[in-house]
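Lecture 7 notes: from sequence to structure.

We start with a single chain of 255 residues. Read the sequence below before looking at the structure.
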Amino acid sequence: MANERVRERGTTVFRPIIYGNTAVVLTPKERELLASPDHTHRWTVAVRSAASAPDSDQVGGADDLSYFIKRVTFKLHDTYPNPSRNIDKAPFELTETGWGEFEIQIRITFVPESGEKAITLYHHLKLHPWTASGEPEIPPLDVAMKLGPVHSWQYDEVVFNDPYHNFLNLMNEHPPTPLPKTKKKPIPFHLANPGSLEASKGGVPEFNTLMIKEECDRLEDARKSIIAEQDRWRQKLIEKEKELERLQKEVDAGA
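Now the structure, written as tokens:
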């Protein structure tokens, strides 16, 4: 039978992924050995499965994604030699050194069996820890070195609607490692709220279903807050329009 798309209504298959980077400060000796001594950090940008392997010191990456991803292209800043870097096998990651933050374009090309077009994601390379105000902080290099790695990761889900039969079978042969239901690992203290109990803990962040639920709850709260704010300003506008109408009538009556 020819390979055709699954036409049953609502047939979808998805895979949770993360994309982002981790960065560490180079030691003075490492900087001396570089061709560009002004570089201050070593960073790795990657596309990985969302789940982390047990007892791993890496964020995500429990699953090999090459069964449905053929290539990941990282488009770096134009100041880098050959800024478009193709990674054609797992792990889909790239390590470089540098001194500045910039936006990285991430193009994911799927295996031919998928029959799907490539997708493009964007990630802002993060070298410095965030402050409580949400702004990046650039501490002295000797201080930053003691803070440990900086992590910046985004959770996403790659969704395939009405997949081809062969591709659906391929995906079903490789179920993703489920995310843990609750947090098992501490988060790096520079990602924690200042003054909290977590602020004194180190470690590698780990994605979990509770984190996703909390993020959905935050988005819903933000949505409700925006609606309430819109209603408040709409009511103010109505009141001002009524006042304007009243004043206009007074002007017309006195004319």
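Confidence is low (pLDDT under 50) at residues 188-202. Keep this in mind for problem set 3.
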